[in-house]
Amino acid sequence: MSGPDAGPALEVRDLTVRYRDVVALDGVSISVEPGQACGLVGMNGSGKSTLLQACAGLLRPRRGTVRVLGRTPDEARRDGLVGYVPQVDQVDKDFPVVVADVVLMGRYHRMGGRRRARPEDRAAVDAALDRVGLADLAGRQIGRLSGGQRQRVLLARALAQDARLLLLDEPFTGLDVVSTEAVTAVLHGLVAAGATIVVSTHDLRTLPDLCRTSVLLHRTVLAAGPTADVVTPENLALAFGLDRRGSVR
Questions:
Q1: What's the number of domains the chain is made of?
Q2: In a domain, 94, yes or no
Q3: Which of the 8 DSSP states describes residue 109?
Q4: Does residue 246 sit in helix, strand or coil?
Q5: What residues contact residue 101 under an 8 Å CB cut-off, 6+ apart?
Q6: To 5 degrees, how large is the angle CA 156–CA 162–CA 165?
Q7: DSSP state of 134
Q8: Distance CA 53, CA 87 (A)
Q9: 141: which residues sit within 8 A by CB, 6+ positions away?
C-alpha cells in the first residue's frame, strides 16, 4: 500500500518532552502496526500519559517526531483519525452536560462549523452508548455517574468518533470486573475490525489477553515487543522495583 496511510499506524522517533526542568520522556521511539493493540506499562510518573498526549497532539515535544497514519498528530486529530481517552479523573463532574452530549463531541469533526448534529450523528452516539452498556443513561448529567461509568462514556465518545487509532489512558481505572470484561470485549472488537489501540494500564492481568505487543516505559523505553517477552519478572523488577515473583520489594 502506498500513500500517507502506508506503514505503521503510530510511529514515534526520539521523542523528548520536558516540563520545565523535569524530563518526562527522553528519546522514546516506538512503532505500532495497524490493527494491533499495544500496551504501555510503567509506574506512575513513568511518562505514559505524557506519551499518549504527545501522540494525540495535545502537547509539543522538545525533540523528536510523531506520525499517526503518516500524518502529524494535528492533522490526524483534525481529520478525526485519532481518538484520545483521558483518565477519568480529568473529567469535570460539575460540567452541566448530559452523557449523550459528551459522546456527541466525538462527532464534531464531521458536523461542520455550526456543530449541528445530523441523524447519522445521533445514531452513532446511540450505537456507541449501547456498545459500552450505557444506553439507558444517555440523558443523565455526567457528574451523576460513577467513576467507572464516566470512563465508559469517554470510551463511547471515541467509538462515536470512529477513529482509526485510539489512545487510552488507564481505561480500566474504577471499573468492576464485569465492566472491565465488557470494555475489553469492545476493544477486542475494534482491533478485529482493523482499528489500532495503544492503552496504558496497571492491570497486568488484562494485558496479555488484550495486547499483542507492549512497551515498558520509565521515561525511556526499557523493553518493547511481544507482550510475553516484555512483561517478565526481570523487566518488571527493572520498571517497578518488584522481586522475581512479582511482589513489591
A1: 1
A2: no
A3: G
A4: coil
A5: none
A6: 100
A7: -
A8: 11
A9: 96, 97, 98, 99
Residue 30: CATH number of its domain: 3.40.50.300
Judge whether 183 lies within some domain.
no
- 229-to-74, 215, 233 alpha-carbon distances in Å: 33, 10, 10
pTM: 0.88
How far is 215 from 93, CA to CA, in rounded Å? 32
Q: Which residues contact 119 (CB under 8 A, 6 or more apart)?
A: none
Contacts of 68 (CB under 8 A, 6+ apart): 9, 10, 55, 75, 76, 81, 82, 165
List of residues 6+ apart from 204 with CB closer than 8 A: 41, 231, 236
The H or E element spanning position 201 is none
Model confidence over 8-65: pLDDT tens digits? 999 999 999 999 889 999 999 999 999 999 999 998 889 999 999 999 999 989 999 9
Show the domain range for 243.
Answer: 1-78+204-249
Give the position of cell 485510539: 166
